[in-house]
Amino acid sequence: MVRPSKKTQIPNLQEAIKETAWKQIAETGAAALSLRAIARELKITAPAIYNYFPDRDALVTALIIDAYTSFGDYQIIARDAQAEDDLAGQLQAIGLAYRQWALEYPQRYQLIFGTPIPGYQAPIMEVLPSAARSLSAPVSVIDQLRIANRLNAEGFPAVQPGYEQMFDVWRSFAGNYDIFSLSVAMLIWSRVHGLVSLEIANDMPPFGVDGDALYMYELKSTINQFIKR
Amino acid sequence: MVRPSKKTQIPNLQEAIKETAWKQIAETGAAALSLRAIARELKITAPAIYNYFPDRDALVTALIIDAYTSFGDYQIIARDAQAEDDLAGQLQAIGLAYRQWALEYPQRYQLIFGTPIPGYQAPIMEVLPSAARSLSAPVSVIDQLRIANRLNAEGFPAVQPGYEQMFDVWRSFAGNYDIFSLSVAMLIWSRVHGLVSLEIANDMPPFGVDGDALYMYELKSTINQFIKR
DNA sequence: TTAAGTTTATAAACACTGTATATTTACACT
DNA sequence: AGTGTAAATATACAGTGTTTATAAACTTAA
Question: What part of B 189-228 touches A (C-beta under 8 Å)?
Fold first, then answer.
């Protein structure tokens, strides 16, 4: 038997491969991702996967793009559930959604921001669209704050010249915001990322403060710092 | 030939294995760590390593402990180079040292805080001594601030009961500080970790602000927030 | 209808990896 | 001198990603 007839074939094998990959990542962690294990579960042979993904890294990239997309959606939905003029409320909602998504899909979060696949380096240009969009929710709010003159970022380091072209590409995926707003958003992002990634990776000493309360404290500190009055 | 005579043996093979591991990690990244590659370079066979480390994970744990120790030393030295009564200066020096160490040894930083080894989970109880000590520098300064009534952490979430025993163990390695100071230090740690880890992993959009300046801005923001006046 | 060409899978093999087992030899101690 | 232990090798197993050759199923066109 060399090729199953169309009736016994799996329809949309490309999607099936990704779904099985996610399933195994959820069960055994992103580090244990294995083409052969995926093939085994789908009852095909490992090299068959190469018809749909040129190599393992390409599959990982596809997974990362899907994860970024889900992550971005999650934050955008949280933002849009708030009153349109309540920018502080929007920023807080986005921050809470950020952590909620990460706690719900810790493996996906690690796949994006950790380095669970040995030797894998995400190709920036392929990932940029979904990655840019995943950061667009906080940037949009901060840009509105800036326009309303309510952004408190005195002394924030100036943006360096020379990146205009790169930024234009980014803008084409994330929305037409000011580069200064992006910079401030990146710093705020680094704060929530710091707390969430330590929490997920279990790198914090296992005693002390409730995770929800600590995160809320940090979120409020940040909002107080960057939003005027 | 089954066992080389003592003259041709490598003295202190245990150390040599670790050194070679570090060398290869620095060259090709922590993810590419391979017992067989280490053995090849030392001109021994791979199973010989098992005389010194029960398995690959044990070697990784030993490397992590060494890294934590180096990391902790680095911060303690930076703190002690400041005037004894300049607590804000000490905290800033520790923060700068934190990033400096991470940029000098990005692979070691990733080995500690990332998950570059598939399936590896650090055994808390083995790592705790060096890990606790690596956090002791900021904790010590914050505890002094607290004692001097200069710590500004109103509304900081209360420490939960039930972890007293764990905390006592931690204290035996890191020093006799208050658990509240540890909690605040953890939050500050998460901030520097967020920024540094994104910078090292190259996860930030590649445009905008100078890394040194951004880090300094965040450090000053944090010091302003947590130190009274 | 038949022939040619393309798609999509398998089979087999290669070069790796960590690890377990058995074996052999060098050394230390009685 | 003999015995026991320690430290290495040799060999083998199961797993990995990937390459190459091959064959069957499907598509298209003469």
Answer: 189-195, 197-198, 201, 203-210, 213-214, 216-218, 221, 225
